[in-house]
Amino acid sequence: MADKYIGLSANPPLGDQRLDLRDLYVFASPADPTHTVLILTANTGGEALNPDAVYRINIDNDGDLRTDIAFSFVFSQPREDGTQTFDVYLAVDNDAEEPQAVGSRLFTGVELTRGAATDVRSSGSFTVAAGVRSDPLFCDIDGVKNLLSFDGKLGERPSPWTGVDSNLGTNVIALAVEVPTSALGAAPDIRVWGRCTVRQNGDWNHLDRVGHPAVRGFLADDETRAAYYATNPIHDRERWIGLFIDRMTKTGDFTRAEAIAAIEQEGTLPDLLTYNPNRPAGYPNGRTFGDDVVSFRVDFLTKGACPPSGLSPHTDTIDEFPYLGAPH
């Protein structure tokens, strides 16, 4: 939810909450450190996903900013009782760049769960699940609003935080994959990003994407966000670095050179989450449930002028796949 409010005004794509991507997590499996966990969350507070969409986790493993491995989730039309099932496809090489779900179908007819138990499926060394789960993101939404609505000088900015975690009772739909790290071909790292694509009038249109957390703080309005989501990460730097610099100038009094240096240091553009499995996971190396990414992004935007929120990670995560806690 906080990712939505980092930009203060963010309507879901096409006004459809089911198409709204939330967060991306990449970390070593707590159950097997030789495996990597990839989790994409969507539809805050919802219980269904759009059957006309493809929800995808993209992986670049050779540094060319193009997708080499893609896990695509496709959902059925809801039944009369509201239940949905999904299929999962694995595409590699050239097929991984196709917008539709192509490649090998790993799983068919798996239930999107809504209760405490999840329908976990395994095929060979791949494990998947999708269902309504407790949102692990912790964020002081009112504090973010206070920060972004402040009009005074940077040095006079008071601490915006209220100390209230706005996400304690929030659910998301989590799409989770666990794979052997060796299958990802990291050399030495991978770059991961999530995407939601919908077929409209015969064309596949990209409606949302997520890599780095809270990047919507750089995108000021729905029109800009729609244009950003429609583009591919390979074009991010040439297309969007000017907008990012402008935003950082306003929030943190950055000079152009300072903004570029900060973007380079974090790797903010292209908007891909980098993960080196030979190093401990923790943003910006992958992302875990315990990472205070909102404080990180606020610190980034204000050039260190704002203290951390002081919030703690949620305690309802679990030690077994899919690792997110049961829904509220």
Task: Provide tags for this entry.
single chain, 328 residues, alpha+beta, five-stranded antiparallel beta sheet, 6 helices, DUF4331
Q: Nutshell version of this structure?
A:
The chain is an alpha+beta fold and 328 residues long. It is 18% helix and 28% strand. The protein has one domain (2-301).
Describe this structure in words.
It holds the Pfam family DUF4331. InterPro entries: DUF4331. The strands form 2 sheets. Strands 3, 4, 5, 6, 10, 11 and 12 form a 7-stranded antiparallel sheet that branches. Strands 1-2-9-8-7 form a 5-stranded antiparallel sheet, with no helix packed on it. It is globular. It has one domain. It has 6 helices and 12 strands. A hairpin with an 8-residue loop joins strand 3 and strand 4. By secondary structure, it is an alpha+beta fold.
Q: What's the count of strands? A: 12
Please indicate the percent range of residues in DSSP E strands (runs of 2 or more): 25-35%
Write the H/E string, N to C.
Answer: HEEEEEEEEHEEEHHHEH
User: What is the molecular shape?
Assistant: globular
Give me the secondary-structure topology.
Elements: H1 2-5, E1 21-28, E2 35-42, E3 53-60, E4 69-75, E5 85-92, E6 104-111, E7 121-123, E8 126-134, H2 141-148, E9 171-180, E10 190-200, E11 203-210, H3 222-230, H4 236-252, H5 256-266, E12 273-275, H6 293-301
Antiparallel strand pairs: 1-2, 2-9, 3-4, 3-10, 4-5, 5-6, 7-8, 8-9, 10-11, 10-12
